[in-house]
């Protein structure tokens, strides 16, 4: 029980460190092709594009309640969030459990031609390590610091509002230098504190008999296990929304308006927007951002 309480405390600290939120604001939008693009003159509360951005890392985590090594995987993520406050953003794509959504197969089809990796498996800003884009836990001690060491030219800000379970949001992508290449923006919805009892939710635990593990004697499976960073829904297509080259200049500021109906199963207080910009040439995530729905996240 003490181990479980320790894990829950650490998780609360780690998640809290990743969020800096202020008041909800709304932004008018104008039509732009298949999506709505907000007017470039209405972004109250976000401000102009700054000269520098903080590099963040997106962990796209392949996991599942039926895989016994995943508790250690979750623990490693919590440690990373604690070690690098406000810089480690995670979206967990479940496989072979009741939290799996179509987004798991969509992402696997996009990055690995549908090949299912060893689970748990992780993409770290989609950087290729050991000739693989999806790597196992043993590589993270070097891959995450390496990914965070970059000085980014792209930053992201977020604002959103919820009314009658319709989420409207405006995603801001800013550039602090002129850069070439083709870039796209993607948006996910994730949920924390996903906790239910039964097959497909109770977490298999390969460490129940390992006295050195924080999961020692917690049961196999662990009942009422708290799943966090659970990928719930794609807001954009998995291949994203193109950022026109006209924005890829110093001070360039693309503003993308989006809206989505929220599934009834989502707990609003535990739902977050994760957004990122990636290079279409190598799939590498250039930078990422997270904010609770109904909140504003300024440039940082």
Number of strands: 14
Strand residues, percent: 25-35%
Main sheet, how many strands, which sense, barrel? 6 strands, antiparallel
Q: How large is the count of helical segments?
A: 4
Helicity, as a percent range: 10-25%
What does this structure look like?
- The structure is a single chain.
- The chain has 300 residues and is an alpha+beta fold.
- Helix content is 17%, strand content 30%.
- It is built from four helices and 14 strands.
- It has a six-stranded antiparallel sheet with strand order 1-2-11-7-6-14, with no helix packed on it. Strands 8, 9, 10, 12 and 13 form a five-stranded antiparallel sheet that branches.
- The protein is globular, with a radius of gyration of 19 Å.
- Residues 1-42 have low confidence and may be disordered.
Offer a quick outline of the entry.
The chain has helices at 2-17, 70-83, 102-112, 140-148, and strands at residues 29-32, 35-38, 57-63, 88-94, 121-124, 154-163, 166-175, 183-191, 230-234, 241-243, 253-261, 271-279, 285-292, 296-297.
List keywords for this structure.
alpha+beta; 300 residues; 14 strands; 5-stranded antiparallel beta sheet
Task: Compile the SSE list and pairings.
Blueprint: H1 2-17, E1 29-32, E2 35-38, E3 57-63, H2 70-83, E4 88-94, H3 102-112, E5 121-124, H4 140-148, E6 154-163, E7 166-175, E8 183-191, E9 230-234, E10 241-243, E11 253-261, E12 271-279, E13 285-292, E14 296-297
Helix pairs in contact: 1-2
